[in-house]
Amino acid sequence: MFLYLVGLIALVALYRWYRETKRVPNVSDKYVYITGCDSGFGNLLAKRLDELGYHVIAACFTEKGEDDLKKSSSKKLMTIHVDVTNSESIQKAAAFIKSKVGEAGLWGLVNNAGLSVPAGQCDWLTIQDYKKMLDVNLMGVIEVTLSVIPLIKKSQGRIVNVASVFGRISPVGGAYCISKYGVEAFNDSLRRNLKDFGIKVLCIEPGFFKTAVTNTEIMEKNIHNLWEKLPQEVKDDYGSDYVEKVLKLMKEQMPKLSDPDLMKVVSCMEHAISAVYPRTRYSPGWDAKLFWLPLSYMPTLIADYVLARDNVKPAKAVV
Which one of the listed residues 33, 176, 238, 282 is annotated catalytic? Predict the structure, then answer.
């Protein structure tokens, strides 16, 4: 009986592998719009899809990002400036895309643009800090998506939303986890709403990778900036050596946690765009698969204990 069960599992795994190897045809006729292409996952995905023959429309926030991407890609790739917090910029980009794709429509949208700072203890942040990140990481995703849904309906294409494993569990303060939970919710409702139009909506939930999100220099600067703005009363709550201890712990742990192989994420994004049968969710990174996702299913008591175990305690923590 045990051997039959093992055989059945192996057969299912083989079938799934074979099914996921199938790719959509005529990629040279398909247009894909990617946000956040200045660096990181978006930049690498734009180059990868360009190599595969797609018409890539890469949205960058900076002129430097556009110039650098053009230099390392084919002439087929197009770059545009998009500020995902600016409605006029988003609509201008949508109009440009419509003029390019015509009646064939837009095959794919990859919502990749995002911020990781400001991030810190919840009571270190102002409402403006929360709004700034939510405008980019959540409202930007929603508005960009709404701007091109009519074009994706024409092609019965794909929408790929880059969330995070921190959209499943919230170990840090600030708006980052909140925004990613929001992306997860938007992704789920969008997937169910657009299924009847033949549109597939997929979600990428990466673990820790070596990007700007996990850059210790950026994180250190962020923590110092927040600390300097705090009222003395709040500083006293945490203690004068709190920041020093947090930075020491961060510098010890972050290099160990961050996977330098960004192509693990990019391969998932490419599969979501190119596969005939894409997965509903992708969780690239062993930390995501073996730690964060299992922890997110644990009872709250256990998850809280595990996450608090190595935390630096404030000076006035109640024992």
Answer: 176
CA distances from 312 to 121, 154, 216, 306 (A): 12, 52, 17, 13
Cis check: omega of the bond before 150, within 30 degrees of 0: no
64-102: burial string, b at 16+ Cβ within 10 Å, e else:
ebbebbeeebeeebbbbebbbbeeebbebbbeebbeebe
Q: Is the pTM of this model over 0.85?
A: yes
Instruction: Give the model confidence (pLDDT) of 134-174 as tens digits.
Output: 999 999 999 999 999 999 999 999 999 999 999 999 998 89
Side-by-side strand order, sheet with 200-204: 78-81, 55-60, 31-34, 108-111, 158-162, 200-204, 281-282
Bridge-based pairing of strands 281-282 and 78-81 is: unpaired
Q: 190 vs 58, 79, 84, CA distance in Å? A: 23, 27, 19
Q: Tokens at residue 319, please? A: 């024992």
Structure confidence by residue, pLDDT tens digits, 48-65: 999 999 999 999 999 999
HEC string of the chain?
A: CHHHHHHHHHHHHHHHHHHHHCECCCHHHCEEEECCCCCHHHHHHHHHHHHHCCEEEEEECCHHHHHHHHHCCCCCCEEEECCCCCHHHHHHHHHHHHHHHHHHCCCEEEECCCCCCCCCCHHHCCHHHHHHHHHHHHHHHHHHHHHHHHHHHHHCCEEEEECCHHHCCCCCCCHHHHHHHHHHHHHHHHHHHHHHHCCEEEEECCCCECCHHHCHHHHHHHHHHHHHHCCHHHHHHHCCCHHHHHHHHHHHHHHHHCECCCHHHHHHHHHHHHECCCCCEECCCHHHHHHHHHHHCCCHHHHHHHHHCCCCCCCCCCC
> Residue 148 CA to chain centroid, in angstroms?
19
Instruction: Tell me if residue 176 is catalytic.
Output: yes
